[in-house]
Amino acid sequence: MATAELAESWRNILPLTKSGFSSALDRAALSPPMATRLPADSALWKLAADNFPTGWELLGDSSANSFANTTESSWNSDADTLLRRIAGAEDALNHISSLIEPTVIGSGKETIHRLEMALMKIYQVAVFIRGDFDSRDPDDTQRDNLLRQAVDAFKEAEAAATAGLKRLGTFHAQIVETGNTVIESIRKEVELLQKTTAVDLESLKSQIDTTENTARNMENSIHHQRERMETLNKAMRDQELKNAITDGIFAGLFGPFAGPRLNFLNTRREIDEIRREMERTAGDHDRARNQLWQLQSQRQSLEQRLNQAQALSALLPGVSANASAAKAQSVMMQTQFAKLKDTATQLVLRVGEMQQGAVVTEAVAYMKKEYAFGLLQICQSAAGVDSALLDETAMVKNEIVNEYGGAMPANVQAAAAAVDEKMKLLAGTTSIRDQ
Question: Which controlled-vocabulary keywords does the entry list (predicted)?
């Protein structure tokens, strides 16, 4: 990836720093439905689609469902927002994860390029000491310029590696923030939604039981009142028949004369009172049945709310697993890239030590063997970084060995052999530059 592309990717992820991460996810929550942002075969989308039908349909007739009409909008909004926040968290994780490997490759290529340039500066130092260096008049100005250029070049390589590692560290912090803060916050809200819904359901079931018992008692009262009224009516009919018979007998014996009468006034009053009580009880019973129907409608709504809360809860393990995977990927990439950064730092120290010895500490006493040994130590470190550096490393080593201009000291020969062994280990391997 080119440096400009890396810079653009980095600018894209900057809004997701710790200070602005929550707001970025909030913006994701307000973005179009997750179906437009997640692949159709996404496990998250499939599970959500199965449990969150369009419109969050409620069971029953909405015209009579007063509870659903007053609460549906609120908890549907909460659940829908939670769903979008879960999708937003997964999108954020996927976005950050997609930037990690390109950053490693891009920053790695930049660092390797800088190291190649730095090794060319080291090659110039090797050329500077070729032949019978110790017998020549010292050229302090050229020496100082070459060593300063080498130090500066390796510092540029170290800066490139440090910048890449810093970007990876930022990505890692964002992943941790998503897992520990964003997803954890959603999990707690989903748990609260489940808990409050379960409590509401339990309370509602108690109300339903009480209302059912009340309605049942009223039905029993109406039944007993009807039986009492029917008994009184039957007694009145039977007595009226007896009166008619008695009147006939008295009329035959004594002429038109009414026999003894039972006074039905109190009985009629009692029947009327029972009828009025039945009407009141029937009205109360109708109201109880209507309340019971509404409570059952509420229960249907709450049960659907609980099902949707459970569906949200079922989504979280997958998102948490993605966060863990992204975190593991981030740690692995940081660990690998840290080795490159550490090597770049080590090279800066080695060339700095050589500069210190040649220019400041030992000055005139710093002979060719010290230069050669120091340059080969730098080659040893460079040979273990990446196969892209093997050509430059070999150039420096061959310049020292082939143009030494006399017998090489044992420590210089050993250092050259060590460079060869290091180079063999990376020979044939794929360079980060080729990815």
Answer: Coiled coil
Whether the CB-CB separation of 246 and 288 falls below 8 Å is answered with no
| Residue type at position 172 | H
Q: Judge contact between 153 and 347, C-beta under 8 A.
A: no
Q: Of 21-25, 331-335, 365-369, which one has max mean pLDDT?
A: 331-335
Phi and psi based region of residue 55 (left: phi greater than 0; alpha: psi -120 to 50; beta: remaining): left
Instruction: State the Cα–Cα distance between residues 407 and 119, nearest whole angstrom.
Output: 25
Phi, psi of 264 (to 5 degrees): -95, 5
Contact, 292 vs 209, CB < 8 A?
A: no
Phi, psi of 396 (to 5 degrees): -65, -45
Question: What's the burial of 384, exposed, middle or buried (CB within 10 Å: 0-12/13-18/19+)?
Answer: middle
DSSP letters, 183-251, are IHHHHHHHHHHHHHHHHHHHHHHHHHHHHHHHHHHHHHHHHHHHHHHHHHHHHHHHHHHHHHHHHHHHH
Mean pLDDT of the chain: 79
DSSP 138: P
